[in-house]
């Protein structure tokens, strides 16, 4: 289950519009390399140390290739590439790459198969409510604290419909 927290936010394009409730992802802490390689190699003939070594080699290779301007394919997961912003000039002879190329970053683009398999397998679970810097552990706790009754419940605290109740109604609306 992928947890989300409900957060009340304003519309940045319409400052006067009333605030609405939005689902915000709650990402769990990433496993360290040793735990990840143990879990990923469980029930296989690959030793966790072998996978650690392969990941280290991949990281070194990717650094080298990206610095040389190559896109790096990471198996069937997707690709890594460098992207950046640039200032413009009217006269081509005035262009200075060292001062005009800005904000270089590495972009990961998942493959279609990887993206679809992850997204199609997602199930969502309410992980609480955040309002005015107060964290409520669950939607039920929020409703109780605010004296809200009715409006339905999410069975097991989860919803596959993006955070709305069955019938398409906002649980806090």
Plain-language structure description:
This protein is α+β, with helices and mostly antiparallel strands. The chain has a domain at 2-28 and 121-159. It has 5 helices and 8 strands, in the order E-E-H-H-E-E-H-E-H-E-E-H-E. Strands 1, 2, 6, 7 and 8 form a 5-stranded mixed sheet that branches. Strand 3 (72-74) and strand 4 (78-86) form a beta hairpin. Helix 1 crosses helix 2 (48-67). The longest helix has 20 residues, at 48-67. The radius of gyration is 23 Å and the shape is flat. It starts with a strand and ends in a 14-residue tail after the last strand.
> What's the mean pLDDT score?
86
Based on helices, strands and strand pairing, what is the structural class? alpha+beta
In helices, the fraction of residues equals 25-40%
**Any idea what the shape is?**
flat
Q: Span from first to last CA? A: 24 Å
Spell out the blueprint of helices and strands:
Layout: E1 2-9, E2 20-25, H1 33-41, H2 48-67, E3 72-74, E4 78-86, H3 97-100, E5 101-110, H4 112-120, E6 124-131, E7 134-136, H5 139-146, E8 158-159
Parallel strand pairs: 1-6
Antiparallel strand pairs: 1-2, 3-4, 4-5, 6-7, 6-8
Helix pairs in contact: 1-2
């Amino acid at each position: 289950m992928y947890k989300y927290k409900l957060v009340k936010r304003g519309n940045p394009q319409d400052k006067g519009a009333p605030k609405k409730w939005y689902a915000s992802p709650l990402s769990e802490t990433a496993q360290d390399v040793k735990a990840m390689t143990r879990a990923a190699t469980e029930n296989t003939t690959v030793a966790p140390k072998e996978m650690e070594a392969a990941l280290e080699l991949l990281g070194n290779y990717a650094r080298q290739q990206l610095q040389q301007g190559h896109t790096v394919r990471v198996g069937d997961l997707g690709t890594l590439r460098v992207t950046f912003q640039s200032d413009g000039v009217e006269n081509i002879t005035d262009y200075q790459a060292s001062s005009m190329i800005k904000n270089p970053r590495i972009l990961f683009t998942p493959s279609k198969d990887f993206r679809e398999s992850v997204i199609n397998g997602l199930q969502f679970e309410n992980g609480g409510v955040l309002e005015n810097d107060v964290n409520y552990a669950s939607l039920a706790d929020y409703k109780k604290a605010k004296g809200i009754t009715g409006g339905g419940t999410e069975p097991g605290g989860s919803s596959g419909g993006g955070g709305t109740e069955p019938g398409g109604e906002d649980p806090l609306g």
